[in-house]
Amino acid sequence: MNSEEGAGYTAPITKAEVPDDVQDAIRTLIRWAGDDPEREGLLDTPKRVARAWKEYCQGYEEDPSQHLSRVFEEVGGYDEIVLLKDIPFQSHCEHHMAPIIGKAAIAYLPTDHVVGISKLARVLHGYARRLQIQERLTAEVAQAIWDGLKPRGVAVVIEASHACMTARGVRTPGVNMVTSKLMGCFLDDARSRKEVLALMGYS
Ligand SMILES: Nc1nc2c(ncn2[C@@H]2O[C@H](COP(=O)(O)OP(=O)(O)OP(=O)(O)O)[C@@H](O)[C@H]2O)c(=O)[nH]1
Ligand SMILES: [Zn+2]
């Protein structure tokens, strides 16, 4: 992860214009929740909320696969697994628009080229900063790496907590959802799968 970016976030969009209808929608929600959107503390809240949502959903403004367009071919014959693990990320579930907070492990088995490791995290954040379900996020990250790098194998494992389960609804904190997407040799070959999952810490 790039240290300038915290959990993958670039500079906040603080000055974005917020259209009136968007502000009105948030005022309606505040009123419906039981508060008065005209009281002093809530006056600027519609703008803040709208800008926050633009930031949470910044992934819609990019094509995450573009991060994989620059590769390095001088790899000194390295042809073993490349793994980036414990990558923190934030997303929002498309059912409740509630936070999904977790970490990902992304691995691939290169052919004759590799990609800068920060790019794996950038691909993750590009898909995470959208309204998501964890299964689709996992599959989209794996597919982008598969298509972009044409490696011999890709493995993505995501472990995350869903605020829609912890803060509302069933209200069950401490639960993590684990999803995985294995492609190529990590899907077809039991030894490769075992090796990558062990490196990730899942065996
Ligand atoms: N498979 C999957 N389910 C998710 C994800 N995020 C949230 N959910 C679930 O989506 C489901 C939506 O269920 P619904 O019955 O339509 O909505 P609900 O009445 O608000 O459900 P409760 O959360 O059980 O109160 C819930 O079970 C959520 O826990 C995700 O990333 N993947
Ligand atoms: Zn949810």
From TrEMBL:
It is an enzyme of class 3 (hydrolase). Zn(2+) binds at C93, H96, C164. Residues 23-200 form the GTP cyclohydrolase I domain. GO terms for molecular function: GTP cyclohydrolase I activity. PANTHER family: GTP CYCLOHYDROLASE 1, GTP CYCLOHYDROLASE I. Belongs to the GTP cyclohydrolase I family. This is GTP cyclohydrolase 1. It comes from Aurantiacibacter sediminis. The gene is folE.
